[in-house]
Queue: 2 jobs
Job 1
Amino acid sequence: MRVLAVDEEIPFPPNSGKRLRSYNLVKHLAQRHEIVWISRRLEGISSSDADFRSLGIRTIVIDNPVRRKSGLGFYLSLAANVLSPYPYVVESHISGQLREAILRLVRTESFDLVHCEWTPYAANLPLTLPCPTHCMAHNVESVVWRRNQTVERNPLRRTYFGLQAMKMEKFERNALRRFTRVSAVSMQDMQVISRWIEPDRIAVVPNGVDVRFFQPSKSREIPKSLVFIGSLDWRPNVDCVLYFLDHIWPLIKRGCPDARFTIVGRNPNPAMTARAERDPAVTVQGSVEDVRPFLDGAQVCVVPLRIGSGSRLKILEAFAMEKAVVSTSIGAEGLDVQTGRHLLIEDTPAGFADAVAKLLNDPVRRIELSIEGRRLVEEKYSWTILASQLEREWETAAFGNIKR
């Protein structure tokens, strides 16, 4: 099958949740299908066209960079977006050059399927295409904005987030209706999308983990150590780390004074770094080439998310490394987990802190959770299994229902 994939960037190196998902799924699919990947260049963010091509994927990068999310120009564009019919995350990614390039490709070459790797990029697709289409909804973006609005205390920002949520929902509803099929990453997201399009056009292809790459060791576990791993330039992660430091960490320290907390991820927020500098037990590691040593060294992985959609690769990686996990309900959303069996779920600061402290002091309980977590990812969340699920969705979109 020949597939034209449209995305915001080349997903390499796989150092963020979205890149990890895109890279690992397409790596498997490229072994059986001819894939052309067209994207823009992201200003100030590195990606490797050459490494991606080594998978056998033909890449086309449009030299029309997406603006940086920093500086005066960024904030002026946020303000100007109030007058736009599009949400900012869509408006900032619309590219006439990309759309023209897509048009040239579909007019001069034959494709069985056009695959949109991120919902906002549906704005760059021509209204009519000569072949079926598929969209990968990494999140329901309007849900993310609604949750931003819910936790935001500043009235001006809260109003702005509400406006973005309203515009994003309208865009998602109209955009997703155009696709032959849509893949969500969780049942919760599928239920939201099914309010906009027929449920039989939607399937769930969850996030996953490379179970061969993430292997348990525990050889370097540091007593009383906690870790959070995630892209620190994504607002839900920034919010959850600051929330943890302000409301949960003091309670953990009260019951476990020798606890230590390491924060790992690219582009740490300045407020986060400043907060960590005031506490010698907190370390902001920033971007790393390999997160496994940091998971290996921790006794507990914390996921105190209050915002987000989709499902969490950070939990799956921790499970694969046989790490005990404490999460909020939103943090564990989209995963087929049971609290008390695979991980502990707590939604109040006191409950979360108590769960962490108990695990730090109970090695037997940590082992019980870690074994069940590893078993779960091996059975349900291997990228090999999930790539086959996405392949079926591609083939169903392109050729109709196929018995396999």
Job 2
Amino acid sequence: MRRAPDDTPEHSLPTNGTISAIKGQQRNPERVNIFLDGVFAFAMTREDALLQGVRIGRELSIDEVAGFRARDTVSKAVEAALRLLTVRPRTEKELRDRLRQKGYEPSAIDDAIERIEGWGYLDDAAFARLWVANRTEHRPRGKRMLTQELRQKGVDRETIAETIDEAEIDEVAAAIVVAEKSARKMSSLDPIVARRRLMGQLARRGFDYGTIKTALDRVLGETEP
């Protein structure tokens, strides 16, 4: 009997019947394919098959088959989310967006997110702290830009405000770091041109005018009133 692919269109699969075979998948030993009356019906994890009492000879109703398929969709969504989290931390919004792009239904996404949150793998506050710390160390920027970035990631305003306050960011010091690095590359430019370009760069990093002026005065020298 040929093993059916895991992504066989659901409309072409049997909706009920007697379990005639349980076969391990070649590409993923942790998953098994379930056959009803000789025809591939659905797939699931070995662990879930054991817990749910799936065995050869058991008759499955339409509702039971639909339930197993729904459970497996959630399992797949969880696996996809965990793979994304191993690459880098993500917010709930980012995970939801990526799972939606992969074609998962809203109900499966909700269940997957709930399961991952229960395991403690999804924490927007922890993500925000890591994001701010990483930016501050490697790519300094102003509080305004940090707030905008975290909002785009789906972190709520209260969490953002608390995170940035706790970080005690010295915006002038951060702007000086950026300005000094860029100023070295502009040493051959006219001072006025260099200052103008640095002002634009720092503004794009989210620093306000007062912070920019203070930083540039320290790096390039004060301008005449």
